[in-house]
Amino acid sequence: MNVHRFSTLVFIVFLLISLTAQAQEGLLLRKQLDAQQVPQNMNTLVVTLYDSKDGEVSVAQQTFFPGEWRLVQTRNAVVLSVNFTELPAAEHHNGLWIEMRADNRSLGRRVLIEAAGTPGVTFAAGNDLDMDGNRIRNMADPSAAQDAATKAYVDNKISTGDITAVIAGVGLNGGASIGDATLNIDIPLILDGSEGSSVDTAGLIQAHNTSLFGYGIEAYGARAGAYFHDGNDSGYAAVGFGNYGIEAHGDEAGVYAQGQTGGADIILGGSADQTNEDDGIVRSDPAYPSSDIFLVSNDAIRFDLDKDGNGEDADFEIFNKNDVKIFNVDESGDVTMGGHGLVAFPRPAYESNWTGVLLGGNATLTHNLGHNSGNYVVDIICKDTEVGGRDIHASSYSSTEWRNLTNSQITIHRAAGDLTCDLIKIRIWMYAY
After folding, report:
1. Is 414 exposed, middle or buried (0-12, 13-18, 19+ CB in 10 A)?
2. In degrees, to the nearest 5, what angle opens at C-alpha 28 toward C-alphas 23 and 29?
């Protein structure tokens, strides 16, 4: 309530109570003045009280001298107060107003009660205005736009959530700004949208921040900054018309994804760069020429080909920078390799050191490869310390051979007449477990 309305209401209260009781000690009258109206070195103040009843006007007038009035400076105005003792004789009032003149200069007229046919203010038993206690009693619930509302009525509407802040179809439009504010409740805001007539993508909340490092929406939570869920069982949908649909940064990981009930943690949708738009693409940062991709696992890394079993050709392929296929594994397990620098024959699972064996003697080597030794492929080679390497297996050459192969050891034998295989080496491959 501003100073003008407050001082007027206080004035009415004192005036009406005094008139009703026919107080003998006088009536306190107050008039709010603008700055330019404040009397300077005033000698006399003439106050006239007009009381209207049934078309007749009763007039009471009183002259005041210095010391008989008060000027009080409030926050926004000056209030002139006098104790008026010349009261009109009327007991019931259709109209009531005052006029003040300072040194014959009008300070204006104030209407206190104005009625059209019936009294504008009626006091009956049990009804009172108490400004000291801030009470307004015996008020009905508001029904019209101009009706007042009690604190109890407003509190009840807030507690039951029955406050309509915006009329449907009007919206909130204005240039007002709201500073930092906190809504310390579990769910401070619920927005319900409806399907519009346009096919354009709609949203309940839109945020625009054009600063260099600005965020459209910033959220923090003890477990997650935001939780999203929609009717299609999708948590979050984003369309990036610039570089990225979603950009994420984190000290441990940029994105942490966990699929529920055995579902995939990440599903890559079709890329518009592909003709059929059915190929998911993972790539390193294009902004860094030396960027790499590392697949790191505590245990296995597995690739499943032809998961849907729809009969299409399914291959694991590697291409070089010239878009030339240099490695291929199809769904049947066939491997095709090409290009320079590739090893066409795999390294053995076990390879012994060069081992010397006496003429006609044996040597047992331990490989501990395990599994089924029937799936081993064994190669034995020897070399003459003077001539060089040889690979002689025929008995007519009186050379060497391997014997007694198990899943942990193998025995090599050197013939008694062999004079060339001074050193022997064993290599083993496993083509199945």
Report:
1. buried
2. 130
Predicted TM-score (pTM) of this structure: 0.35
Q: Long-range contacts for 324-331 (Cβ within 8 Å, ≥24 apart)? A: 329/305, 330/305, 331/305, 331/306
State the burial class of residue 19 (Cβ atoms within 10 Å of its Cβ: 0-12, 13-18, 19+): buried
Distances (CA, A) of 128 to 65, 119, 395: 34, 16, 131
Report how far residue 178's alpha carbon sits from residue 182's, in angstroms, rounded to the nearest whole number: 11
Question: Which two tokens mark 204?
Answer: 């309940």
Give the C-alpha separation, 272 to 264, whole Å.
Answer: 22
> Rounded CA gap, 330 and 144, in Å?
79
Collect all residues with Cβ–Cβ distance below 8 Å to 60 and sequence separation of at least 6. 48, 49, 51, 84, 86, 87, 88
**Type of residue numbered 358:** L
- Contact by Cβ (8 Å): 77, 34: yes
Sheet holding 325-330, edge to edge: 315-319, 325-330, 335-337
CA 227 to chain centre: 8
CA 399 – CA 251 distance, rounded (Å) = 65
Question: What is the residue type of 94?
Answer: N
Of 359 and 263, more confident: 359
Task: State the Cα–Cα distance between residues 104 and 42, nearest whole angstrom.
Answer: 10
The one-letter amino acid at 180: D
- The three-class DSSP label of residue 317 is strand
Which residues partner with 382 through β-bridges? 390, 424
Question: How do residues 65-79 score in pLDDT, each as one tens digit?
Answer: 888 888 887 767 777
Q: How far is CA 243 from the centre of its chain?
A: 21
For residue 117, what are its two tokens? 């046919």
**364 pLDDT more than 90:** yes
DSSP state of 262: T
- List, for residues 154-205, the tens digit of each pLDDT value: 777 766 654 444 444 444 444 444 444 455 555 556 666 555 555 555 566 6
Q: Compute the distance between CA of residue 426 and CA of residue 351 in angstroms, rounded to an integer.
A: 6
